[in-house]
Amino acid sequence: MFEFITDEEERGQVGIGTLIVFIAMVLVAAIAAGVLINTAGFLQSKSQETGQQSSKQVSNRLQEVVTTGSVNTNSSDSIPDDTIEQVNVTVTQAPGAGEIDLSNATINWIGPQGTETLTHNSSGEAGWQFNTTAVKNTDDSDTVLNDADDRFNIEFDLTLSDSPAALGEGEEVTIKINTMSGATTSIRFTTPESLGQKEAVEL
């Protein structure tokens, strides 16, 4: 037997098919929208994190106040006369910088005898290390610059057995101070051509 489909039944079937397709499209669009929203949120979070890290790398820097050298004038020492046996770099926060803990910093000393990488003497690492002392400190922190008025000395002792030799006249040194946030401060100086009759010099 043949079953005849009326126009109304045919239109009803078409309508149901269209409704199913429409619902499927809505579901697909909803899933796609959810994926896009999640992806956008993730990308926004990552971009904010990257922006903050980049900002810290730019802003959390040190600023040199003055660099001085102590001249050896004691002929009985093993250090040659008229050489610089200690270098002191006074630093403060750069404008806009946040808290900087010098105990977490690493320093590259690039001098006449090559390159040395130093850590703070509280780190427990072996080898030549740098020391810090507070010149002006607004709180009790021993190594942390957290105020624009803070001043700390970074000290390099060249009389130690594992340090480079004392600096002679006319020698050039570059110091790169790398903070934990990834910011780098470069300080370059050349010792005076004459160190005789001096106990300390500005570098």
UniProtKB/TrEMBL annotation:
Chief location bin: other
Gene Ontology cellular-component annotations: archaeal-type flagellum
Pfam families: Flagellin_arch-type
Keyword Signal recorded: no
Subcellular locations according to the entry: Archaeal flagellum
Alphabetic keyword roster: Archaeal flagellum, Membrane, Transmembrane, Transmembrane helix
Transmembrane intervals: 12-37
Function according to Swiss-Prot or TrEMBL: Flagellin is the subunit protein which polymerizes to form the filaments of archaeal flagella.
PANTHER family assigned: FLAGELLIN B1
Family: Belongs to the archaeal flagellin family.
Record protein name field: Flagellin
Organism: Halobaculum litoreum
Lineage, uppermost ranks: Archaea, Methanobacteriati, Methanobacteriota, Stenosarchaea group, Halobacteria
